[in-house]
Amino acid sequence: MSNATIEKTAPRTYHDYAQPLWRRVLLTREMAVVVALIAVYIVAAIAVPNFSAPITITYLLLDVAAILFIALPMTMIIITGEIDLSVASVVGLSSVMFGITYQAGIPIPFCILISLVIGAIAGFINGFLITVVGLPSLAVTIGTLALFRGLAVGFLGTTAVTGFPDTWSDLATSTIPGTPIPSIMVIFVVLLILFALLLHATPFGRGVFAIGQSSEAARFSGVRVERTKMKLFILSGILAALAGVYYTLRYGSARGDNATGMELGVIAAVLLGGVSIFGGRGALHGVIAGVLLIGTLASALRLANVTSDVINIITGTLLVFSVVSPSFFAWARSKWARSRGKRGSGSATLAADPPAITQPDDTPSNNK
């Protein structure tokens, strides 16, 4: 059998799958974030007094619950190569609408439903401007960030709606009996399973990754790019509204400035968790670890009497690191691979191509 025949029949494999399974699972950015989370927790438990107390775990999870909700659809949006900076404003707007409808005498379940509808409408506005009008998501969501926040503050001004029923407020802050884990985590775990299946085990999820790799290629492959993005932005609005309801009940106050700046924590956690800002790559377990890592750092620093300004600086630094590090490591790997290739090709040339001995033109041929 000729070499050409062998080359044609040899199976082609992706480079990533040339490694053993344990390396593909363990030697990833997501697992690095998980390891970092465990290390930071151990160090904080040793160095910071009362950090390992059950009450600290409870408040840590209560603090990050809203971010965990929003991070689920945000992960999928960034994988497609888009971004949603308006999520914190949607939290504030849904919080205000929840307070206004409750103040008007509407039962709490219907207040929650109305807030979720408001979130869906906000997400639809973002999706319409991005997928139908064709505007860039960065510009659109910066604009709607100001729009939704302005509406939230305009509806209530400097006042706040308080006095929510203790039953609902206690439900937002209660824990699973016998554990320090808040009850709100049950809802989050259900949503996490649904989103993990949607992203990693369905054609819709494969389409999300395909859009992030190349929207044009995805479109020619049959993926409905615009419709997929529209659904993701609506999901983002709904989950942000759910976070707004939780935020209101937890703190017992509906205000127009609720959750100001939360988008920084969400995006930092998603990117820190291994999702590429350029799209096409990411996994939910890394994102959850990223959220918990930032929350653990913030909780430990607060217990160590570090000011909120310093915590914001650390969060911003992590965000910059999350954006820069993949490009830096990719550049370093490519440069190292090129240097190895040059050394390998040089030695192969010396071994395979010895200096040729040429004959003069008038040398008689041996074939005569």
Describe this structure in words.
The structure is a single chain. It is built from 15 helices and no strands. With 368 residues, the protein is mainly α. It has one domain: ABC transporter involved in vitamin B12 uptake, BtuC.
List the helices and strands and how they pair.
Blueprint: H1 3-9, H2 21-26, H3 29-47, H4 54-79, H5 87-103, H6 108-132, H7 137-156, H8 166-173, H9 184-200, H10 203-213, H11 215-220, H12 225-251, H13 262-272, H14 284-303, H15 308-352
Helix pairs in contact: 3-14, 4-9, 4-10, 4-12, 4-13, 4-14, 5-6, 5-7, 5-12, 6-7, 6-12, 8-12, 9-10, 13-14, 13-15
Keywords:
15 helices; ABC transporter involved in vitamin B12 uptake, BtuC; mainly alpha; single chain; 0% strand
Question: What percent of residues are in strands?
Answer: under 5%
**What is the CATH T-level topology?**
ABC transporter involved in vitamin B12 uptake, BtuC
CATH class: Mainly Alpha
The total beta strand count reads 0
Alpha-beta classification: mainly alpha
Task: Report low-confidence residues grouped into runs of 5 or more.
Answer: 1-14, 362-368
| Distance between the amino and carboxyl termini | 33 Å
CATH architecture: Orthogonal Bundle
Order of helices and strands: HHHHHHHHHHHHHHH
